[in-house]
Amino acid sequence: MPVWWYLPAVGVAVLLGAEVHMGYPGIRSWIGYAITVPLFMIALFWLGRMRVRVAGGELHVGAARLPLRYIGRVEIVPREGKQVALGPELDPGAFLMLRAWVGPVVRLEVTDPDDPTPYWIFSVRDAEALVAERDAAILERNEEIARLRAGLSHAESLAFARAEELERIRRS
Length: 172
Hints:
By secondary structure, this protein is α+β, with helices and mostly antiparallel strands. The protein has 2 domains: 3-48, no CATH class; 52-171, no CATH class. Helix content is 48%, strand content 19%. α1 packs antiparallel against α2. The longest helix has 24 residues, at 127-150. It starts with 5 loop residues before the first helix and ends with a helix. The model has no long low-confidence stretch (mean pLDDT 82).
C-alpha cells in the first residue's frame, strides 16, 4: 500500500473524530479521535495486505490456493503490458487478485481439467523470485517422486509410468 494513502485516511478519520468531538465536552471529546484514527489505519493496512507464497506444494494468493501440479505456463507481465493483459487479453473466467500500486503481474495457466478457471493473474512485487520459488518446489516434488520410484519394483514402476501417461492424455 502506498504510504501517501495513509494521509487521506488520517484526514477522514480526523473529520469523523471531530464530529464526535463537537458532541461531547471535556475528556470524552477525544474518544472519537482515539477510535477512528487507529481503526482507519488498521483497516487500510488490512485492505492492502495480500500474501503471495509457495508452501506445502501449493501456490497461495490471498486466501486462494492452487496445487503446483496444476500450474502450466507462467508469464510475468511488466507494468507496461499490464493494461493490455487486464483489458483486451483478459478472459472473463480468470482469477484476478490485483493491487493497482504494484507494477508487475503474474499470469499462470491452470491445467486442472476440473477447474473452469483458465488462468490466474495477480500482482506481486518480486515476480522473478516467486517463479524461482515455484520452480524449486516443483523440482523438490519431482526429486521426491524419483526417490519413491527407486524403491518400487519393475512392475510397480511400469504401472506408475502408465498411470502418469494416462493422466497426461486426460489433461490434453
